[in-house]
Amino acid sequence: MAGGAFVDAEASKRAQFYEYEITGYCILACIVAALGGALFGYDLGVSGGVTSMDDFLKEFFPKVYTRKQEHLNETDYCKYDNQILTLFTSSLYFAGLISTFAASYVTRSKGRRASILTGSVSFFAGALFNAFAKNIAMLIIGRILLGVGIGFGNQAVPLYLSETAPPKYRGRFNQFFQLTTCLGILIANIVNYLTEKIHPWGWRLSLGLATVPAAIMFVGGIFLPETPNSLVEQGRNEEGRINLEKIRGTKNVDAEFADLIEASEAARAVKHPFRNLLARKNRPQLVIGALGIPAFQQLTGMNSILFYAPVIFQSLGFGSDASLYSSLITSSILAAATLVSMFLVDRLGRRFFFLEAGTQMITSMVIVTIILALKFGHGEVLAKPYAVTLVIMICAFVAAYGWSWGPLGWLVPSELFPLETRSAGQSVVVCVNLFFTAAVAQFFLVSLCHLKYGIFLLFAGLIVIMSLFIFFLLPETKQVPIEEISLLFKSHPFWKKYVTDSDEKSSGE
Question: How does pLDDT run across 130-141, given as a tens digit for each residue?
Fold first, then answer.
């Protein structure tokens, strides 16, 4: 099928003739590529822990350190309200959202592998800058380099996984990215728990160890095979077929290869892929994949918990060790929930996990809001029964996110775009995702200070909206070949009026 164009009935039936085996070659390639998630996850986990470490605060943010040690009369919600401190976190994501557009060009013209290698080098350099930082300027420069690394990695890795995976198991393979992200968060929290006890330079070790996944990803990336889709898109058809045969474990790839050839012809006809995203026939992919899902993924409130889990638990009266220990629990649950999604998403479907998790997350946030509204406030330690309930509700929220918006926020957009706009579309996905990540990182603490417990009620309301968005607009994509997913919109109750038969011969701009 030619990307976003609807082709004749014969072409649309090719999927039933796809042949493949689950080969070790395919699994190894996906595992190496998915290490890009480890970079993202390690930074998510390590930044929140480091910003709660006394040694780090004393060296770079002494005012925040002083405020942290005092029992303020105003409210415990405001202990960490400092825009420069949050800029330390959010600067990475602002850099990432800008660099992803450069990554789009590299990914489309040079291949997915080239972007993965570029991202690992930049991330490695950023980790070194942060580890040896002597002032805030060095910290910010390091964060920007890390952001460039994440911009390239997040742009290329989900595409690589979706294009490499067999259609029947695309959800499972694509979620390697989220699994390594969760493992990166878990490892970062373990590292923070250990380095917090190393005075006064433990925080430097936490930040510097980000070089390890970057180095592994670079070395693995050197041997990483390019995806058949990318090779065909570049006109390297013979190499593309050879790679497809290796990945699928069979010589009988005529049907799938014919779809790739047809999709690549449509892709080469598109001279302005970003402009083509605005075409009427691509309206579903633009609204759902490029704008809706990546924005909503951050507006669940999950990254607020990941960034500032140690801060939140300290504000609730937990000691420094207890707060980091609580973060270990939440990141472990996140990883376990991702495994649940990996093994069931291709059976139960994307919509099931989105809608079930929405109910669970809304319930959790409402209960958190009630406890904080009634029992938490002005310098008093939260009573143990309420603190335990709060932690349980946060863990329930994390679990729901871990098998829904976390992995599916990357899986579903990477499935939706036709080949001619896939790289451009994924860049918009990453840009929107990182924009909202940065905004949440930058404004969560000040919002927590001013809205207090109301911030969690706000997140609950947003999850209601995004659940309705999924229910009415997202078709089920499980086990549908990636080059045939656009057909789903032709028969969708809402989208069929935008994607009509007149689009069949459309070749883009």
Answer: 999 999 899 999
Per-residue pLDDT tens over the stretch 235-280: 899 999 999 999 999 999 998 899 889 888 877 777 788 888 888 8
Minimal CA–CA distance to 369: which of 463, 441, 306? 463
DSSP H or E stretch at residue 247: helix 237-248
| In the chain, where the domains are located | 20-499
- Calpha distance 5→285 (Å, rounded): 13
Q: What distance in Å separates the CA atoms of residue 308 and residue 445, rounded to the nearest whole number?
A: 9
Residue 287 has a CB neighbour count (10 Å cut-off) of 15
Given CA atoms 294, 448, 199, 136 in this order, what sign does their dihedral have?
positive
| Average pLDDT value for the chain | 84
Contacts of 427 (CB under 8 A, 6+ apart): 100, 101, 103, 104, 107, 155, 274
- The CATH code for residues 20-499 is 1.20.1250.20
Task: Give first-to-last CA distance, the chain, whole Å.
Answer: 18
Count of alpha carbons within 13 Å of 316, Cβ hemisphere only?
28
- Output the pTM of the full model: 0.78
465 with 473: CB under 8 angstroms?
no
User: Are the C-beta atoms of 348 and 411 separated by less than 8 Å?
Assistant: no
Q: Report the C-alpha gap between 144 and 237 in whole angstroms.
A: 37
Residues 6+ away with beta carbon under 8 Å from 346: 168, 169, 170, 171, 172, 478, 479
Could you write out the DSSP letters of every residue in 125-154?
HHHHHHHT--SHHHHHHHHHHHHHHHHHHH
C-alpha–C-alpha distance, residues 415 and 162, integer Å: 7
Residue 55 CA to chain centroid, in angstroms? 30
SS3 13: coil
* Alpha-helical runs (H) found in 316-418: 320-348, 350-375, 384-402, 405-416
| Residue 30 to residue 39: CA distance in whole angstroms | 15
What is d(CA 193, CA 328) in angstroms, rounded to the nearest whole number?
8
Whole-angstrom CA distances from 362 to 51, 313, 372, 373 are 28, 20, 16, 16
**Residue 288, CA distances (Å) to 28, 42, 101, 167 in order:** 31, 28, 19, 21
- Residues 394, 329 contacting (CB under 8 angstroms): no
> What dihedral angle (degrees, nearest 10) is formed by the CA atoms of 56, 60, 63, 67?
-10
